[in-house]
Amino acid sequence: MFIHESPLLLPGLLAAQPEDKPIDPSPWRVNEEVLVREAGGELLLRQDSRTLRLRLTPLSGPLEGYAQDQTSIWVLARVKPNLISLRCARPSQSNSLERPLEIGVDQRVADDLHQQRKTSAPTVAAAMQWLTDEFVCERQGFGGDLVFAAILPRAKSGQLQLVGRAWLVDIRRANDGTLLVERVRRRNQKSLDAYAVLVGEIRFVDLAAGIRVQDGDERAMLEASVSSYGTYLELWQLYSDMEWRREVQTAAELGALRGYRIFPAN
């Protein structure tokens, strides 16, 4: 899926003028992700190494407020010499994955997708390709992949649901810890109450060829990202715990914990 095809982008365009206008539109790639941030009292737009200073207009709507939220996802919709138009997605939270996230696909899934006429052949390879195309966004200029994951208030442990152009994929965690595609179904038009963005190396793999299993910290981070509202504090605590465990492991390898000198107050 290309980022501009996501149904989770908000409807309508948010427009701003380049401060140093007119600009040459030709180097800018429309329908691709850009970074929009407020910094030092200025509103900045960046794509690759190119940066623009933006000026708000009556057509800007909530652009300034959205730019202050670092979880916002931005897509460059139009570029004219005197006007920049943007689209925006507003996930509840964003989680950068430190290690690859692998999701297993088996023959059952391949047969099901072929019966739904999504693939030309009932093979696992064809199913992996279709699932990747439907659910995984390659981040041009940013590196890594991006998926949209529904936040499910009553989700069972190990449950994950990804949102594609027109389909949902339900994913479950098996007893051995592997993540497996359970079913693919059409998405209804009702908007999600909340969703998260997962960023990193994300891939559908042939279960029969072997699959990477997440460790305990990774599982906890993933489930905290997609299982409940208001999990920022929980995510922060998990990050802190993971960092402390790394310190302890390093100390065990070196034979001592990292030391700090404490001086008495005068």
User: What percentage of residues falls in helices of 4 or more residues?
Assistant: 10-25%
Shape: elongated
Question: How much of the polypeptide forms β-strand, as a percent range?
Answer: 25-35%
The average pLDDT score comes to 85
Unreliable stretches:
229-242, 244-248, 259-263
End-to-end separation in angstroms reads: 62 Å
The topology string of helices and strands comes to EEEEHEEEEHHEEEEEEEHH
Could you provide a short overview of the structure?
The chain has helices at residues 63-67, 107-115, 124-135, 216-226, 232-254; strands at residues 14-18, 32-39, 42-47, 50-56, 73-80, 83-89, 93-96, 101-105, 137-138, 145-150, 160-163, 167-173, 179-186, 195-200, 202-206. It is an alpha+beta fold and 266 residues long.
Description:
By secondary structure, this protein is of the alpha+beta class. Helix content is 23%, strand content 33%. The chain is built from 5 helices and 15 strands. It has helices at residues 63-67, 107-115, 124-135, 216-226, 232-254, and strands at residues 14-18, 32-39, 42-47, 50-56, 73-80, 83-89, 93-96, 101-105, 137-138, 145-150, 160-163, 167-173, 179-186, 195-200, 202-206. Strands 7, 8, 9, 10, 11, 12, 13, 14 and 15 form a 9-stranded mixed sheet that branches. It has a 6-stranded antiparallel β-barrel with strand order 1-4-3-2-5-6. Helix 4 packs antiparallel against helix 5. The longest helix has 23 residues, at 232-254. The chain is elongated. The protein starts with 13 loop residues before the first strand and ends in a 12-residue tail after the last helix.
